[in-house]
Amino acid sequence: MTTPKGSEPPKRRRGPRTPVGTTTLAQVAQAADVSEATVSRVINRKYGVSPATRQAVEEALKQVGYERPLDNRLVLMLTPNLKNPIFAQQAERVENELNPYGLTSIICPVYPGTPRERDYVESLVDAGVAAIVFLSSSNTLRDEDHRVVQFVESRGIPYVSINGGFPESDAPVVSTDDWRAAELAVGHLHDLGHRKIGLLAGPTGNLPADRRVEGFLTAMERRGLDDPEAFVARQHFNVEGGQQAAATLLAMGVTGLVASSDEMAFGAYRAAERVGLRVPKDVSVVGYDDSPVLDFIGSPLTTVRQPIERIAENIGRIVTSLIANRTVSSEEILVEPELRLRASTAPAPGRP
Description:
By secondary structure, the chain is α/β, with parallel strands linked by helices. Helices cover 39% and strands 15% of the residues. It is built from eleven helices and twelve strands.
């Protein structure tokens, strides 16, 4: 097309953006029997819409095949802390998976189930977030008041959990297979001739900790080892907790220790040293996570590695699908861990 000299081509008017190949707000509003303004509020996760109306609009969006554009680019990521390398690594990996889609993570280190976690969520939801990732946050607590997720659901914010899901929630979950992790650790120590094997377990009511206990008991019973429950010591997921739990088990004559975190394993080293035992000559230790510092300690730690890259890949795919209003399976995805052999395990004392 040519333009007469001295005139300008007509400017193209910019109307409201509608996802390519889907329907208009008016069609969604008609399907849900609400106003276009109400549809817009639901799409943009705004307050002021009743749960019943929000649900009706969400169902209409799916019915007519409306996919939300990725205009809202903020994803809130909640994690217990960033001092633990595994949480920092996982948050970074998830961020890397979201970046190609133009999504930016806001990483908030908060203690799970606390008012601070609720404050972060409520403030940032009002500011406008497209989705939330619970990275080993309140989603790992069995018996906590889950007002956080109730608020998120009331506002129609999609969310996904890592390493455990909320009770009675059909939101997607991606987790390391903790039962398999325990089997790998116990099997390795048993193959080395250890028969008195103890577990440094996390607190009761923490979902990953409880799963590792279940896996440990099953692995011990499968090998015919007596009274495995007596060799489970519960403590916090830190060096001090690991030291206390290991001291209890070493006093029972345990020669192999399975830790529920690498930090707990470091505590086991300290407990062994204090009673004159050497790792791995007198006691073998298996960690969990695969911290980047493991090759640089006295006896580099054998550990069960969480597959953080594959978890992050799944989270990236799920988050972008949820934001676009595509259907995502609510069945938990369990990702296979990997045993990393280093120098902290050896044949049981008296074994060649």
